[in-house]
Design goal:
CATH topology of the largest domain: Fructose-1,6-Bisphosphatase, Chain A, domain 1
Largest sheet: 7 strands, mixed
Distance between the termini: 43 Å
Low-confidence stretches: none
Shape: globular
CATH architecture of the largest domain: 2-Layer Sandwich
CATH class of the largest domain: Alpha Beta
């Protein structure tokens, strides 16, 4: 419990910065994945790192902006994405999250090794927490999993190839579906877990493990089914987090029925 309280304090620190007038929007370079970094990306990451280091001591960090950093003899690995939805944040679109997953440090660590996962909405005081096999939703009026998912598909697509799986899924549905592309993969995945959407599909090859590690841990604990579909299909809980990795294809389904159809759409 003490670890969770401390991590939530770190989340509040970065949330406070991102809501403040001190935010920097200037471009400062490119991260290891080749994506543009802005001032707020660097500052938010530093806030999280300083705070978690005070709590965990020697800790290895895997982040979007600086990749894997190991110092001393770490006991813990923190997989962090302090601003998931950077483009949204840049243009004042309030669908942005802070994402932290903490696992024992070891070579070959995977999403399923995370003992604590936290995803916090930046512009609402709502936080999703995984620990000890259970999920708690803090600050939401309705945080319970729906008995049946909402008729919404969450997906990302930039060209014909990445659009096709989404279209196939929609056309295969026995009910009318709405498609939304919202801009924070971590929140999208958790919303599928809660049943606020029935499926999430991203076949753009632009997601990274740091974007989705905490969210996958939370969503699957809620009952969702998550698969990496880069080369064949495998459980997304097996995604490695001991180094930065692009995920060519990821799908998350509310349950078995939706999973069957999404796998057919991706083949």
């Amino acid at each position: 419990m003490e670890l969770l309280k401390s991590v939530l304090m770190c989340v509040e620190s970065v949330r406070g910065y991102l809501r403040s007038s001190a935010v920097r929007y200037d471009i400062v370079g490119a991260n290891p994945f080749g994506d543009v970094m802005k001032g707020f990306d660097i500052e938010a990451e530093e806030i999280v790192k300083r705070c978690l280091s005070q709590i965990l001591g020697d800790v290895a960090f895997l982040s979007e902006e600086t990749g894997l950093q190991v110092s001393g003899a770490p006991k813990w690995l923190a997989v962090i994405d302090p601003v998931d939805g950077s483009t949204n944040f840049s243009y004042d679109i309030p669908w942005v999250s802070v994402s932290i997953a903490i696992a024992p440090y070891k070579r070959g660590a995977r999403v399923q090794d995370a003992e604590l996962a936290v995803v916090a909405e930046v512009f609402r005081d709502v936080t999703y927490v995984y620990r000890s096999g259970f999920v708690e939703v803090l600050g939401a009026k309705h945080g319970e999993r729906r008995a049946w998912p909402a008729p919404i598909v969450l997906g990302y697509f930039e060209n014909e190839a990445s659009c096709k799986p989404v279209l196939r899924y929609v056309l295969s549905s026995p009910r009318r579906l709405a498609v939304r592309s919202l801009g924070s993969a971590a929140l999208d995945i958790i919303y599928v877990g809660l049943g606020n959407a029935e499926v999430f599909i991203d076949a753009r090859a632009r997601l990274r493990n740091v974007d989705v590690a905490a969210a996958i841990r939370i969503a699957t604990a809620l009952g969702a089914k998550a698969v990496e579909c880069s080369n064949g299909f495998r459980d997304a809980l097996d995604i490695e987090v001991d180094e930065g990795k692009r995920i060519k294809c990821l799908a998350v389904a509310y349950g078995d029925e939706q999973l069957t159809r999404v796998l057919q759409a991706l083949q």
